[in-house]
Design brief:
binds adenosine-5'-triphosphate; 5-stranded mixed sheet; binds magnesium ion; single chain; 6-stranded mixed sheet; 283 residues
Length: 283
């Protein structure tokens, strides 16, 4: 039985549960219980605070963990990064009061920087030869400059609105993070097989993200042009319609390119265009 540690509540919880659900791993009572078992997959889910997940995986309490790469890097246990999961994206950045004229990284020399990520910050400063004082604060780091606790902060940024409302400006993007699947490496044969099955499903779910299935009718003479507009996974499916001289064409497109493709296809005579969601792409 594989045990996976996930965040019990907070920013990563919902998308983690949704990811497990999308790969067919149903968990009862996702939030209420400390430990829950999947009904249909040989897995147990341990609901923890995100800070504790790297350690629990490193010491073998959990076989796998889903946690932000920022926590994995900060805790620095020897873990294998098995897969990036494509959600929970954020960065850790240096930010300073917006009233300060920023001349470059040298500004930080001799300054005091508040952060919950001292290890990542220290490594960055060392790599740039900057000597600064690090003040560790576990919450509300963004108020540190206004409160006179520090000259600058090193904190998580996603939209940047928290910085703005605290009169701060991001000056250096240091660390890019997203949710990741980690393990401690030494998996048993049996656990490895379960992990491989999970990975296969996760990759299929990831591959379908942002994809749409598109089908349309068009004059058969326009098919070669349409195939150029719609390069598919291998090549689009083309089927004859009962009406002579007409074909039906099916393909998969990126959501971001959809409207541009639709415009081009209409221009060469495509009609009856249908766009459907793609649930999984089995690779
Ligand atoms: P816990 O109670 O589990 O300790 P927490 O308060 O430490 O939760 P959250 O704020 O829920 O943590 O964030 C969890 C993770 O979500 C972060 O470590 C980071 O990887 C990711 N994340 C994505 N966007 C943001 C953001 N805007 N602010 C903070 N974390 C973010
Ligand atoms: Mg936490």
């Amino acid at each position: 039985m594989i045990r996976i540690a996930i965040q019990s509540k907070g920013r990563l919880n919902e998308e983690t549960v949704a990811l497990l659900d999308s790969i067919g791993i149903k968990i009862d009572d996702a939030k209420r219980k400390f430990l829950s078992r999947s009904r249909n997959f040989p897995i147990e889910v341990l609901h923890m605070r995100d800070d504790d997940i790297p350690q629990l995986v490193a010491n073998g309490t959990a076989t796998l963990g889903i946690v932000g790469l920022n926590e994995v890097a900060e805790k620095a246990y020897p873990l294998d990064l098995v897969e990036k999961l494509g959600f929970g994206g954020c960065r850790i950045s240096l930010a300073i009061p917006k009233s300060v004229d920023y001349p470059g990284l040298a500004w930080f020399a001799g300054k005091k920087i508040a952060t919950s990520y001292p290890r990542i910050l220290r490594e960055f400063l060392d790599s740039r030869g900057i000597s600064a004082e690090i003040e560790v604060i576990t919450g509300s780091v963004e108020i540190a400059p206004a409160a006179g606790i520090a000259d600058a902060i090193f904190d998580i940024v996603s939209s940047g609105s928290t910085l703005v409302s605290n009169g701060l400006v991001e000056v250096e993007r240091v660390f890019e993070s997203e949710a990741v699947l980690v393990s401690a490496g030494n998996l048993s044969e049996e656990d490895r097989e379960v992990l491989d099955e999970m990975l296969f499903r996760i990759r299929s779910a990831k591959a379908s993200k942002g994809k749409k299935y598109i089908l349309m009718n068009l004059p058969s003479a326009a098919v070669p042009e349409a195939v150029k507009i719609l390069p598919s996974m291998r090549s689009p499916t083309v089927m004859p319609l009962a009406a002579p001289g007409w074909s039906s064409l099916h393909s998969v497109v990126d959501k971001d390119e959809l409207w541009d493709k639709v415009r081009q296809l209409k221009a060469i005579g495509a009609e009856g265009i249908l766009v459907l969601n793609v649930d999984k792409i089995i690779l």
